[in-house]
Amino acid sequence: MSDAGTASPTRPRRWRRHLLVLGVALALLSLLGTWLLQPKQLVPLILDRAGKALSLEITASPDAEARLRGTPQLIVRDLVVREPGGDAVLLRAKRVLLALPWSSVRSSGKDLVIRRVELDAPELDLAAVRAWLAKRPPSEETAIPTLTDGLLVSDGRVTDGTLRIEDVAIDLPALHPQRRAHARIRGRAIDGPLKLPFDLVLAMSRPANDAGIGIVGTLAFEGGDWRLPATVRLSGSLHFGDDGIAMTPATLGATARYESGDTRLPFTLGLHGPLRIAAGAATLAPAGIALRGKDAIPTLDARGSMAFGDKLALHFDGTLPQWPEAWPALPPPVSTSRTPLPFSLHYEGKPDLSDTTALSLRRDAMSFDSRFRLYVVLGWLAQAGGSPLPPLDGTLRAAQLDISGATLEGVEVTLDDEAVE
Fold first, then answer.
1. Does residue 46 lie in a domain region?
2. What pTM does this model have?
3. I want to staple 419 with a disulfide (CB 3.0 to 4.6 A). Which of 108, 323, 359, 391 is the partner?
């Protein structure tokens, strides 16, 4: 009896002690949970976890917002992404909004469903991104997420060496791995004196490797005192590989116009061939080209290659069906011949075509090898009553020429113009 009597008042005290400890623990957990759910504490944890998963250092301003009711939503400002210990910034953005359902949060990224992504004033350094990707271990094909309410990018900027793309705006209404997708992309590319504003609509049969892609819209090459506005249509099958991006084949159609002062020279252009983009450079080889023009723009068909990067390289061999009427008249008997004119064109230089172009022409027993600057020659062709000789260096060889009633045999004429140098 005495043992039982002494034990009973101890048990309530022991239970009260356990309940007190549990209450304190719950209170601490509650306080900890409340602290963690504050944006200033939650955002650094999320960014640190994402950075470690990608081997990146991701930081942002403490001025962040987080919403957990309904669809979780995170807003961070002054985002900076770089390699740990490195100076180069891969990505920075003034504001980033990410909204994703609870199912994606609980799946730890396995369920790639995102409601919406917004980027304000992002700046992307492609050279730094390529350097980071080169250090990453090889992985399987990237999974395409679902964006139920799409992606919106405003006031973006992309740099790659001397090339920069400013005022980038992207509007992607929605993205589903097995559905058609379309987006509008606008911006202005700048490389030295060459500017290229563009406004394009992109459509894909589905966002996956080897899917069909089509791009339509407007762009304009601008350099100095000339412009080349164009309406373009590009289509093909898009492939992403370890060695870059390929479209095999790519078909490009463009309706364009050369403008300089009062000069307007319209033409249409068609290109066809395998397109490859890697390390900031694009190549089209072997390429077929069809040019249809009037006045000073010739009509021709050719085959060759194109390469565009820090420099532009063009190499084409083709045929002029006839000598354009707007060009300086050829002396007989060359002018009276109806034989097509085989030609070879070579250019390696600045992307705006301002460096020297080499052109060789043949007809019957006549040959003409020349060097010229395109925009100088176009300006000369647009001037009425100017110099009768074109601004180029060249050598004309002919077995026979009829000039001012006289027949000359074994003719060789050399032209030398300082504008070519």
1. yes
2. 0.81
3. 391
